[in-house]
What we know:
Layout: E1 9-17, H1 24-32, E2 38-40, E3 53-55, H2 68-73, H3 76-92, E4 104-110, H4 115-128, H5 137-141, H6 145-154, E5 160-161, H7 169-183, E6 188-195, H8 200-208, E7 238-246, H9 247-252, E8 259-268, H10 281-293, E9 303-305, H11 312-326, E10 334-336, H12 339-342, H13 349-363, E11 365-366, E12 389-390, E13 395-402, E14 406-414
Parallel strand pairs: 4-5, 4-6, 9-10, 9-13
Antiparallel strand pairs: 1-7, 1-8, 2-3, 6-7, 8-14, 11-12, 13-14
Helix pairs in contact: 3-6, 7-13, 10-11
Amino acid sequence: MPATDNGRIVITGLGAVTPVGNDVDTFWRRMKAGDSGAGPITAFDTDGFKVKIACEVRDFEPREWLEGKAARRLARATHFAVASAKQAVADAELAIEPATAHRCGITFNTGGGGLGSMETGTRRLVARGPQQANPFLVTDVMPNAVSCLISIELGLTGPTTTSTLACASGNYALLEAYRLLRSGEVDAVIAGGTEAGITPLIIATFSRLQALSTRNDTPKAASRPFDADRDGFVFGEGGVAFVVETERHAEKRGARIYAEVRGGAVTADAHHLTAPRPDGSGAAAAMNRALESSRTDPGEVDAVFAHGTATPLGDVAETLAIKKALADRASEVAVTATKSQVGHMLGAAGAVSALAAVKTIEEGVISPTINLDRPDPDCDLDYVPNRARAHPTGVALVNAFGFGGQNVVLVLGEG
């Protein structure tokens, strides 16, 4: 898409609530250290469950970000969304004035929204009867609550949306922000992803799908993207937010610029609800179209922030996709999988990978794929095994591939 008079689309603010830190600095310090956020599930009693581990957000207090009733009643995913969004706005030093509130939009996505609230609400209905049903459940479980509460809390009156693309939702929020800013309708957008799905029903059903690791005795070694001994992903949760602006707006107010959103693309596998195309062709198409839309040559790509779920099918398919998209360049590019450290944050998965990409572009250091001890022969790229390293990065691809075959790829560049 050709540039507008407002120049490039840039990222000026960051916010994060993750299994390895409830702010960006802690998140990035622990990512570079190769720490894992995995541990025994504390959110509920796992007696009788095949899977007993997850990457939980710890020491998070909603009342630090929301007042009274909102902190008590709202879904955990909404808490994460509001907290990360407020962090990002503060980091960007973005002043929100009533006269210009309509020029700031929100694109904040989730895979499931208030799924946990639906479970507890159902249990209450069964136990107490219909006259005691939770009246606040309606607004608690609607996915767009995550963006609406940000709007209410910050007083933003611009376009406010929530889209659901399963595990690709977070990436799509940034792409939506990019497109909205290109249209000229707004000057700034708060974009991000959030999820809070560590609940009895969700863990049980994903376990029945055989999607989750069962390494209950060694949780920190359980998430093993691209490793020959991988046995599924570890569930994660959290929220990640960005302030995205036109370059003209950012420069006018003297904002720090972390990175550029150069473009992106969305494709569909049209194949299966839970399995990727084995040859990676759908994901490769998204990568190719993202490069084309951003006018980026494959030779410019320095790093790929992989979807990397640690599933037997997914990691091989993504490796093939990277090879198709980058051709000879594929073996020279650093590929890293954030899920090895923070687990699979579903609707926030693409957003947390994008955050890692932004910090890599900013600092020239790439976080590792931990637990990569015995590489799968079919996964033969440079996955930055086990240790962070210096890696100057001018252009990064961020991959996110959702159930249903929805593929979203972003192209990020130097600010």
